[in-house]
Specification:
Helix content is 66%, strand content 0%. The protein is mainly α. The protein has one domain. Helix 3 crosses helix 5. The protein is globular, with a radius of gyration of 15 Å. It starts with a helix and ends with a helix.
């Protein structure tokens, strides 16, 4: 599967601008990590792009609709990573791709939320500000803090370094993302 095919699937299932932006941010972060780690950039990017593709249209079946679609297309590694992108689903983390997706999903959304309350968005956002906001349970309350910490642990990265990497990646794409 290439990005164009993945994007067509995404557009058929998702209309929400904020959800589309979330998936685009995770796509960019996943692609950047793949490049850094010498992994398959297109595969990692597509996993990020499609990880919540069925959430809007089929919230009670998420992520099974997109996972079944990907399996039927022979995209088993991407399907498994998407199936495993939430610890409470108790799906084993078998590959670095699986671990990267769980590590990038919640924290990327949280960092975007941090940008939205700043006058200059991501322009001057610092890692210490994100880490401080993580301690404020009232800020972006839907972000599961356990997922953030467990994701970094599974991926084998220090949370502060992980946040810095994501901020830098998103900052490079701030105009496209509107942050």
């Amino acid at each position: 599967m290439n990005r164009q095919e993945a994007f067509a699937i995404l557009q058929s299932l998702t209309k929400s601008e904020s959800l589309l932006r979330h998936m685009r941010t995770v796509e960019l972060v996943m692609e950047a990590y793949a490049k850094k780690l010498g992994e398959n950039q297109e595969q990692w990017a597509i996993a990020g792009l499609l990880h919540d593709a069925d959430y809007e249209a089929f919230p009670d079946q998420h992520p099974n609709v997109i996972v079944d679609k990907l399996k039927s297309m022979g995209e088993l590694e991407i399907a498994h990573a998407i199936l495993a992108h939430y610890t409470h689903w108790n799906v084993p983390y078998e590959t670095l791709l699986d671990k990267a997706l769980i590590a990038c999903d919640e924290i990327t959304g949280f960092i975007v939320a941090c940008c939205q309350v700043r006058p200059d968005g991501i322009q001057s956002l610092e890692t210490k500000s994100v880490l401080k906001k993580l301690k404020d349970k009232g800020f972006a309350a839907k972000v599961d803090r356990y997922e953030v910490s467990k994701g970094a642990e599974l991926f084998g990265v220090e949370l502060a370094d992980h946040v810095t990497f994501i901020i830098e990646t998103l900052r490079q794409n701030r105009q496209e993302l509107g942050i």
